Amino acid sequence: MSALLSEIAAKGDPARGEQIFRRKDLACLKCHAIAGAGGQVGPGLESIGASAPPDYLVDSILQPNKQVKEGYHATAVATDDGKIFTGIQIRKTDSELVLRDAEGNEVTIPTGSIAEQKMAGSIMPAGLADELTRPELVDLVRFLSELGKVGGYSVGTKRVLRRWEVAEGTSWRPVYTTVAGLLPPDEWKAPGQARTMLQASTGGPIKLAVESAHAAGLAFSIDGKPITPEGDGTLRVDLTPGMHTLDVAIPAGRREGIRVVLEEIPGSPARVQAVLGK
Question: What is the rounded CA–CA span in Å between residue 246 and residue 163?
Fold first, then answer.
């Protein structure tokens, strides 16, 4: 461990580590969220580097059952009809037990049908990192150790739109921004389309700030109605209460990412939030 920690400090590259974290074969974002975007099965990771030492991070990756964060112990349930369920307990009443499984789905089990129930350690299976090379593990831990610290891997206070979906044929695939809030171009096939959701509890005008370098060539619409960005890339929209969809048409050949920030307009009654989660 001592040798590995020294290597992480001296040679670990957080930029490469973030790319490893986002790899589809590792599926880190399937269970973990950063600033609310991603899976809700495991702990959120946006401040893990500021609260956990590197040796804890190494153990969490290589030996997930060694130290399980409070509130994230899995529960295994066997029912009287022979079925077995495993997940994080969400709630329990006199009539039902509700678990969140590894896919993020809520599973409701009638308490009267439970034959056996016990703690099952971490819901993260051992061996997920077995395919990583040592340099990849070093970079991954270095990335995690930077999360939440002052610098390039702090999520900041801006209300970045972090959860998106990209069109794939007739379906939509959820994708997530980097820690810096950028939806990278390797997440879509241009020409293509991306969308994100906004929830307005109170209606009114808002601004969506698209950094000018990221707005070039993109076409925006809200609920199917086109919006023309201002010179600085700002989109101004007046939302009614309810759910709204921001669509972005991506032209062929585009290789720049997309970063959009939700901003309030002084005096506007609007109360709007980005829809996050998995």
Answer: 12
